[in-house]
Every structure is written in structure tokens, then in C-alpha cells.
Amino acid sequence: MAMTSVSIIGAGPAGSYSAYLLARAGFDVSVFEEHPIVGEPWACTGVITEDVLSRQLKLPEELVVNRIEKARIISPDNNFIEVKLKNDVVIDRAVFDQHVAEMAKNEGAKYYVNHRFVEICGNGESDGKVTAKIRNKNLNQLKGVESDWLIGADGPRSEVARSAGIFGNRKFYVGSQVTAKMENDNLIRFYPSENGIAWTVPENSRIVRAGIAANKNASGYFDEFMTQAVGKDYKQRIIARQAGPIPVYSPKAQTQKGRILLAGDAATMVKATTLGGINQSLMAATAVAEAIATGKDYSKLWKKKLGRDLWLSLMMRKAMNRFSDNDYNKLVKIFGSSKNKRMLEEFDRDEPRKFAFKLLLQEPRLLLLSRRLLF
Ligand SMILES: Cc1cc2nc3c(=O)[nH]c(=O)nc-3n(C[C@H](O)[C@H](O)[C@H](O)COP(=O)(O)OP(=O)(O)OC[C@H]3O[C@@H](n4cnc5c(N)ncnc54)[C@H](O)[C@@H]3O)c2cc1C
Description:
Elements: E1 5-9, H1 13-24, E2 28-33, E3 47-49, H2 50-53, E4 64-74, E5 80-91, H3 93-106, E6 110-113, E7 115-120, E8 130-136, E9 141-147, E10 149-152, H4 159-164, E11 172-181, E12 187-193, E13 196-202, E14 207-214, H5 218-229, H6 234-237, E15 238-247, E16 256-257, E17 260-262, H7 278-294, H8 298-321, H9 325-335, H10 338-346, H11 352-362, H12 365-370
Parallel strand pairs: 1-2, 1-10, 2-6, 4-12, 10-17
Antiparallel strand pairs: 3-5, 4-5, 7-8, 8-9, 11-14, 11-15, 12-13, 13-14, 16-17
The structure holds flavin-adenine dinucleotide (FAD).
């Protein structure tokens, strides 16, 4: 009997980890990546909690650019709280993607770089097969690739989702980041404000990744933030720029149409609080592999693994979107108390539900702020 075949579009974390799990389970897996080199270009700060990542895969030490022990959350009035981090690392995102792709190749997945998905042929499915039109950019040739399953792991602008008619009405933050020369004390700095969220994350004592995510006026906000955090001469300090859209999690987004599944950013699976999506993409890949191997409902599977925390992060984000700068000033003061700070340090960022309830019980003043959840 012929092996069940799976075509995966995109060799980011969602695509390559799906490829690894499926190839390991004995499926015939092909990955199509539009760029010539897996992992490049990248647009990511690369902050992950190693503990959480290790539930999926072991991080080789050579991928770790920096280990960071403390973060500062800085309010618009320049007060801050400093929290100890548990296992936060900054990774080399390009090499991380290449590492996961190697894991998949070692299990037998075939990789086709410089191959761009163009569209799904026909109505999507015929005789239990899906045919994708793929452009081989080396030869500038279009070919039809038929498989039993098609996985859209092609990032925030997902052409697979569009072509399947399930892109829906998504919203995005504009993420704009640079690597810049800046002497620093190896702390992550977060700057939440009514404009959005901004950060500086050290690569080493002389270089930071500094950026913003905003849903309006991103370039004005970027300029203002960089002047404040990096310095008036920030333009001369820039080494490289990385930018990209970050999807706002959409609980109603359709993530499956017949034999077509969406995973990771292509399915908007990004935490709306921190805008992290690497771990979420890996977890989505476990749902992809399980759905294909067992025939279980994909959306039920990923929602069970991820849904509640993505939803809670979205609710927290919606509340934060209503925060004024003054609310952030108050929040930093509330968190400044030692018992709340301790809880923040214990907070597993990938599982906000545990944290939110504990915190509300401990700190009734937060209820005053959380009313913005409701109005
Ligand atoms: C500025 C910024 C900072 C971020 N910082 C963090 C962070 O610190 N921590 C964190 O966890 N997350 C962070 N994220 C989010 C994180 O980068 C994403 O959630 C993650 O990359 C999603 O992985 P993915 O595999 O779903 O998609 P992607 O990584 O976007 O991979 C999609 C792949 O598909 C390929 N592709 C696209 N279209 C096609 C096509 N038509 N045909 C073939 N191939 C195609 C792309 O080239 C790409 O390789 C950040 C994002 C941005 C923009």
C-alpha cells in the first residue's frame, strides 16, 4: 500500500516540526520553502523559555545566543519592576529553524527550497487528494504536487489559507525590530504603553535586539521608542533590520478545510500578550501530526493543547489595549509589591491561565484594572 503523503508549505518551526513528527511516524513528507536558505530572512527576537521548549525538543547549546536572568518592565513614567527569569534564552532563529529542518530530514522528510506555493488546484480536494501548484524558482517552472494532506505552515500571510478560502478577517500587529550596538547590563527591558509593546533584548554586552509591535502608527512609535531606549543617535547604531507582521490570535479562524490544515502563524496561533509564537507553532505541529496519524479532529486537538492560553492571552491583550499610560503606571506600582513580584517570577508565560487567577486572588486592586476586560 502507498504511504500516506503530506505536503508542508513553509520550513519555519510549525512546518519543520510537523515534518519531523510526521516523517518519524512513517509518513511520506515533502516540505516546500520559498526561500533558498531555511531560516532566512528572519524576523524574530528569539526569546523563549527553555523549559517550555524542552517539552518538545532539546535545544543544542550552540543555538543559544544569550541567557538572561532578569527582566525589567518599565512604565511610561519610568518606574520599573525587576523580575528574575527562570530559563529565558535568546536563540539564533535562523539556526534554530535549520536545526529543526535537519531533525526532519534525518527522519526522511524531503526538503525543496526555492519552491513557492502558489495556489490549490480546483476546489481543494478530489478523490481524497489535494493538489498544490508550486513554483520551482530555480527553473521558473510551475508544477502540480498531489498529496493526501496539505499543511499550511506558511506564516502570517498564509497563501494556503487564502487559497483555501479560510484566511478570514485577520488582524496584525506591525513588528519592527533592529539589532543595534548598545552597551547593556544583560537585562531584557519591556516597555508596555498605550502605543503597543516595545523591548530591548541583549545578544551580548554590546548588542541588543530592539523593537516594537503596534497596531497603528508603527513608524512614529518605533522612532520615539528607539530615541528613548537606544539613544538619539540610534540610526547610526543599527546593524540590521528585521520586520514582519504578527497575527492577532483569532479564536474563530478556521484552521482546517478537508485535507488542508493550518498551523502556527498561518493559523494566528500567537500569544497576544507577549506576541511569542515559537512554542505555539511547535505545539500546533504536535496536533497536526496527531490529527493525521489518528484521524482525530485537528481543531479539537490544537485547542486542547493551546486554545485556552491563547484565548486568555487575547483577553489580557484586549484589556491592555484599553490601558492608558497612567494605567500602566499603576500596574507597575501594584506589581512592585514583593508578593506580586514573586508571583510574576513564578509565572510560566506560556500558561497564563494559572497565573491570572492566582494573581487576581492575591491582589484585589488588579480587579479595578481588569474591569477594562468588560467595558
Ligand atoms: C519582530 C518579531 C519578533 C518576534 N519575537 C518573538 C520571540 O521573541 N519569541 C517568540 O516565540 N516568537 C516571536 N515572534 C513570533 C514568531 O517569529 C512566529 O510566531 C513564528 O516564526 C511562527 O512560526 P511559523 O512556522 O508558524 O511561521 P514562520 O516562522 O513565519 O515560517 C513560515 C515559513 O513559510 C515560508 N513561506 C511563506 N509563504 C510561502 C509560500 N507561498 N511558499 C513556500 N514557503 C512559504 C516562509 O519563508 C517561512 O520560512 C516574533 C515575530 C516578529 C515579527
